[in-house]
Design brief:
The structure holds 2 protein chains of 2 kinds.
Chain A lengths: L3 E4 L2 E3 L6 E11 L4 E6 L6 E5 L3 E2 L7 E14 L9 E7 L5 E3 L3 E4 L1
Parallel strand pairs in A: 2-10
Antiparallel strand pairs in A: 1-3, 3-7, 4-5, 4-8, 5-6, 8-9, 8-10
Chain B lengths: L2 E4 L3 E3 L5 E8 L8 E6 L6 E6 L6 E3 L7 E6 L4 E6 L8 E8 L9 E4 L3 E5 L2
Parallel strand pairs in B: 2-11
Antiparallel strand pairs in B: 1-3, 3-8, 4-5, 4-9, 5-6, 7-8, 9-10, 9-11
Classes of the chains: A mainly beta, B mainly beta.
């Protein structure tokens, strides 16, 4: 099973700054099988990005994904107050079909 | 619009079973698989399993094999998750989540239910 390790655990930023969230996989995976979700308190997760460059419906282009091999990054440019949340990376399409990282909390 | 609406909170005793429903609307049910994901209090996301709403095929996470059953009712557009032999560490929010297509179990989730809190306590 591929293990996903996210860092940092907590990222403290101010609105307007850029956020860089990391997801490292225990084995090399294709970027086509990596996704990112955002979860706000009391809400279900929301799909942000899947595959190398697919943004989910309604996700602004301030959110972008990159990476290859075992190192992947979610970048949020010009962080807005509504972006403060927990972010999860997900590997899909393997065995088991889904594994998640432990999350990164983006806080003000 | 696409909606997944789950049943309400449940409180169960250890050893009991729970069945959570996920009623969908706003899209063609058989064109998208349904996954179940749980989240223990203050913890991360754990995938439990997937069901094909097209033919009923299932794929379960190893941690839940033998203890969980996923079903889907095509006429009503509803999916169900039954978890048996409940333990205190099954206390969690359980989510249904739609896969981006019906192509198989390993696809990301584009719409989620609101979650159902299941509390296991004696």
């Amino acid at each position: 099973e591929i293990v996903l390790t996210q860092s940092p655990g907590t990222l403290s930023l101010s609105p307007g700054e850029s956020a860089t969230l990391s997801c490292r996989t225990s084995q090399s995976v294709s970027s086509s099988y990596l996704a990112w979700y955002q979860q706000k308190p009391g809400q279900a997760p929301r799909l942000l990005i899947y595959g190398p460059s697919n943004r989910a419906t309604g996700i602004p282009d301030r959110f972008s994904g990159s990476g290859s091999g075992t190192d992947f990054t979610l970048t949020i440019s010009r962080v807005e107050p509504d972006d403060f949340a927990v972010y999860y990376c997900q590997h899909f399409g393997g065995s088991p079909p889904h594994t998640f990282g432990q999350g990164t909390k983006l806080e003000i | 619009q696409v909606q997944l609406v789950q049943s309400g909170a449940e409180v169960e005793k250890p050893g009991a079973s729970v069945k959570v429903s996920c009623k969908t609307s706003g899209y063609t049910f058989i064109n998208f698989g349904i996954n179940w994901v749980r989240q223990a209090p203050g913890q991360g996301l754990e995938w439990m399993g997937w069901i094909s709403t097209y033919n009923g095929n299932t794929n379960y996470a190893q941690n839940f094999q033998g203890r969980v059953t996923l079903t889907a009712d095509t006429p009503t557009g509803a999916a169900y998750m039954e978890l048996r032999s409940l333990r205190s560490d099954d206390t969690a929010i359980y989510y249904c989540a739609r896969a981006i297509s019906a192509a198989g179990p390993g696809l990301p989730f584009d719409y989620w239910g609101q979650g159902t809190l299941v509390t296991v306590s004696s």
